[in-house]
Amino acid sequence: MGKNLIRIYPNLSAMSQAAADFFSKQLKEVVTNQDIAHVALSGGSTPSTLFQLLARSPYKESISWEKIHFYWADERCVPPDDSESNYGQAWQSLLSKVPVLKQNIHRIKGELEAETAAQDYIYQLRQNATGDLKWPILDYVMLGIGADGHTASLFPGQVNPAETKSAAIAVTADYLGRPANRVTLTPLVFNSARHILFLVSGENKAKALSLVLDGSYNPPHLPAQRIRPVNGDITWIIDQAAAALLNNK
Ligand code: 6PG
């Protein structure tokens, strides 16, 4: 694994601003070097401030949106216009406001039955596969962490054998009453990525974050520990409330 950088900011607004600067600077390098970028967005509430920032100047003008392919780390099995849709959130707060090409949006079809949506997503990923892989090497993956240590829709105590074979799987999980049926990318895809950007905010995440970063290695119960990009880096952009229990803060 490459670098594992931890950056702590006073609050969600400051960390989102730092994430916007970080993301746009890094993306500029990627599209300069390879003329196209593959980016997976996460869902949940934490990235929404970042999405709103990226939809405004200077990022709206400075980022080469037409050169970016968008994917999702996971999705809840709800229609795209549902308030619980990760795609819907990203579309409303960002993608509908910037010149991204429609054909470059590779969303998980949450309106389908979970297993059907997972197979459809696997097919979409294969259309943009890198080399011998069955999926694209993602240049950027945004991820969050749940208060239970889950990330994307990889939940504690749920190690699905299919995770080691398929790029995406269907899962069912109970978390804060959010939609249970979901589709998620697997560690196969995350760990072939070039850069993972974890965004973590709020005191309710402090315990899980301290276990993930400072605790013993226990990936079955701390799924965020399964994210270890083989040839990639991890950057943690977190706020002080989430960092409260970290050893080195
Ligand atoms: C989802 C997400 C999930 C999210 C965490 C944190 O679909 O729910 O992808 O993994 O990142 O649950 O969610 P919050 O940012 O809302 O705390």
Structure write-up:
There is one protein chain. The chain has 249 residues and is an alpha/beta fold. The protein is built from eight helices and nine strands. It has helices spanning 12-34, 48-54, 59-62, 86-93, 114-127, 187-190, 206-214, 240-243; strands at 4-9, 37-41, 68-72, 74-76, 140-143, 168-172, 181-185, 195-200, 233-239. The radius of gyration is 17 Å and the shape is globular. Bound molecules: 6-phosphogluconic acid. The site of 6-phosphogluconic acid has 15 residues, from strand 4.
Please tally the β strands and state the result: 9
Distance between the termini: 22 Å
Helix tally equals 8
Kindly report the spatial arrangement of strands forming the biggest sheet: 1-9-8-5-2-3
What's the helix-strand series?
Answer: EHEHHEEHHEEEHEHEH
Quickly list its features.
binds 6-phosphogluconic acid, single chain, 18% strand, three-stranded antiparallel beta sheet, 249 residues, alpha/beta, globular
Summarize the structure in short.
With 249 residues, the chain is α/β, with parallel strands linked by helices. It has eight helices and nine strands. The strands form two sheets. The protein has a six-stranded parallel β-sheet. The chain has a three-stranded antiparallel β-sheet with strand order 4-7-6.
